[in-house]
Design brief:
The protein has about 150 residues and is of the alpha/beta class. The chain has five helices and five strands, in the order βαβαβαβαβα. α2 runs parallel beside α3. The longest helix is centred in the C-terminal third of the chain and has 18 residues.
């Protein structure tokens, strides 16, 4: 049996988090989805510290990352991940409400794999998340160190 590909969802808005999780569930993805509520929690997860100190080995197959968050924003998370040789191969999909050209340009310059603006209407949002989840969790071959160990 193939190991499952883990998804890291970094989202501070409880409604967007719930919608994203529901959309992934509707697509019948059985992947583990770990939720970090801001950039600090995301880095804690990636570096296996604080509440995530005992998590299983391996990097996520993909990180779905909001940009506008308290404590540490998504751009800073991208910078730190892409500067770390152990983390830089993690695919990052920005999933944000920001349509600012500067955010888009900066995210791509830093090395994100995709930039998706959250649709305003619920059905479009659910469809976008389903497609993102299906591609990154099922179709895409992740970096070797991202598979969940049994």
């Amino acid at each position: 049996m193939d190991p499952l590909k883990r998804i890291l969802l970094v989202e501070d808005d409880p409604k967007d988090m719930e919608l994203t999780l529901n959309a992934l569930c509707e697509h019948h993805l059985v992947n583990e989805v770990v939720v970090a509520r801001d950039g600090v929690e995301a880095l804690d997860y990636l570096y296996r510290r604080n509440t995530f100190a005992q998590r299983s080995d391996g990097n996520p197959a993909v990180m779905l990352l909001d940009l506008k968050m308290p404590r540490l924003d998504g751009i800073e998370v991208i910078k730190q991940v892409k500067m770390d040789a152990q983390l830089q191969s993690i695919p990052i999909v920005v999933l944000t409400s920001s349509r600012e050209v500067s955010d888009l340009e900066q995210a791509y310059k830093l090395g994100v794999n995709a930039y998706v603006v959250k649709p305003v209407h619920f059905p479009e949002f659910v469809q976008a998340v389903k497609e993102i989840g299906a591609f990154w969790a099922i179709v895409n071959e992740p970096p070797p160190n991202s598979l969940k160990k049994p």
